[in-house]
């Protein structure tokens, strides 16, 4: 497995060269992460808290850890001190808990709000009405130890590229609508995290600023 060659090939195929690349290293051995680091990757995406905890001490200090999986409230405290970005904030309850854990250690934790854009039921995230309700609430405005830097969404797992494109476009529209609102200071919308190994080019065409790529770099999952 030539991770550097895979990375070069992925980067060459980027439609937007400024789009950030998060290497999805879940289930991969630490040697694979070190090879990707040596090839210039600093952003690694994991979907299990215990896996991030195990790998974090093994990697150089400037590694940026992205929590991309579904996060349980009771596990936040384990990654709060060092996580670079939590992608999948899919409920107000979870956001409040991240804020609480950030307050305990006096660290502002960067997050993305996950929007449900897929037609599949299995994907997590807010719909527009829930998002609207959260943002309008007094409690939301009182958060002190989170920084909402953007949105994240996962398209339906389908061969139908038009559907995938439509879902990504929908996320971009929500992003633009939110940007035009009067939002609290801790909301600074810069990132749209959408696109994975199978659809990152479509995502970039539709405005993605951050893609999460695993199998195209590290090979198919173990």
How does this model look, in words?
The protein is α/β, with parallel strands linked by helices. It has one domain: Alanine racemase (TIM Barrel, Alpha-Beta Barrel), CATH 3.20.20. The protein is 38% helix and 20% strand. It has helices spanning 3-12, 30-38, 49-55, 76-79, 92-104, 128-136, 138-141, 161-179, 200-205, 215-218; strands at residues 20-24, 43-46, 64-67, 85-89, 109-115, 146-153, 187-193, 210-213. The protein has an eight-stranded parallel beta sheet. The two termini are 13 Å apart. The model has no long low-confidence stretch (mean pLDDT 95).
- Unreliable segments (pLDDT under 50, ≥5 consecutive)? none
Q: What is the averaged pLDDT score?
A: 95
Number of domains: 1
CATH level 4 superfamily: Alanine racemase
Oligomeric form of this entry? single chain
Note the beta-strand portion: 15-25%
Q: What sequence of helices (H) and strands (E) makes up the elements?
A: HEHEHEHEHEHHEHEHEH
């Amino acid at each position: 497995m030539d991770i550097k060659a895979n990375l070069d090939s992925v980067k060459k195929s980027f439609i937007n060269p400024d789009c950030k690349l998060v290497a999805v290293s879940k289930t991969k051995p630490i040697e694979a992460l070190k090879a990707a680091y040596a090839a210039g990757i600093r952003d690694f995406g994991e979907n299990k808290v215990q896996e991030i905890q195990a790998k974090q001490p093994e990697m150089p200090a400037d590694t940026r850890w992205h929590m991309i999986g579904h996060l349980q409230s009771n596990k936040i405290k384990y990654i709060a001190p060092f996580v670079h970005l939590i992608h999948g904030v899919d409920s107000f309850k979870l956001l409040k808990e991240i804020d609480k854990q950030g307050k305990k250690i006096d660290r502002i934790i960067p997050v993305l709000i996950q929007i449900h854009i897929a037609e599949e039921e299995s994907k997590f995230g807010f719909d527009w009405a829930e998002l609207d309700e959260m943002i309008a609430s007094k409690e939301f405005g009182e958060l002190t130890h989170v920084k909402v830097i953007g949105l994240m969404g996962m398209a339906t797992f389908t061969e139908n590229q038009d559907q995938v494109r439509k879902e990504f476009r929908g996320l971009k529209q929500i992003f633009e609508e939110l940007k035009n609102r009067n939002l609290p200071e801790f909301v600074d919308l810069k990132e749209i995290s959408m696109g994975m190994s199978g659809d990152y080019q479509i995502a970039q065409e539709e405005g993605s600023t951050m893609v999460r790529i695993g199998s195209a770099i590290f090979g198919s999952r173990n």
